[in-house]
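Handoff note, outgoing to incoming analyst
You'll be picking up this chain. Sequence as last confirmed:
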Amino acid sequence: MKLLKQIFDFYLNSSIHVALSCYALVRITFHVFHIQYDEPMALFVFFGTIVGYNFVKYDALVRVKRKPVGNQLKIIAILSLVSLVLVGYYFFHLKRITQIVSVIIFAITALYTLPFFPNRKNARNWAGVKIYIVALCWVGATLVLPYINAEIPFIPDFFIKCIQRFVLVFVLILVFEILDLANDDPHLKTVPQTIGVKRTKILGFSLLVPFWIVGILSFSFHELIINLIMVVMLMLFILFANPNRSKYYTSFWVESVPIFWWLMIVFL
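Most recent structure output, in case you need it:
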């Protein structure tokens, strides 16, 4: 049992789970816009997520706080290095415009982690900005990149789906911020720190309205049912979120929402 827990913790700590969530959202983008499966695009996002998230999570520990590097962190570093090589490989299979946009997304991720400006903290520590940067990066990586790589003309539905994807990620991050309330630096001014847990939950419930409306605009009964299940699922995650919840509540269950969404599209 202890070994299984160690494997499961490694699966979460190495960002494989969140990478699978991003992969699921890419597959949803393929489905929504009737794009033929593009393996280099999907795997570029998958391995890019591993590299990006591990860089964000562990850079400060090693570079700034100089924490001792344990065995698990060494394995994660090796995994990240292999993923970086694969990201480079798949990068050259993408269209030129996709490459340019992906570099912009990477630059935003780097800005989020590293202090580029003298006497300024990184963007991760800018008051009230974190949630928007993360949501925009997710939309860019899981929707904008696959869309432009497929060379599809921009249509109104693309922008509508961008709003829906942004709302989804924003709501999921709200749950994370509620659970991290006790540990977050007060200067971050996260949403729960600014307006309180109760109002944050009300905000999350309110944002599910445009998410639902976008879902029913497809006029498909199949999509209608799936979006209804998604709304109920998100409402429950928001409702039961509190700072005393286990880390697995967000790091596994909440981050599984995009995977559940993809599986419902495939099997329902």
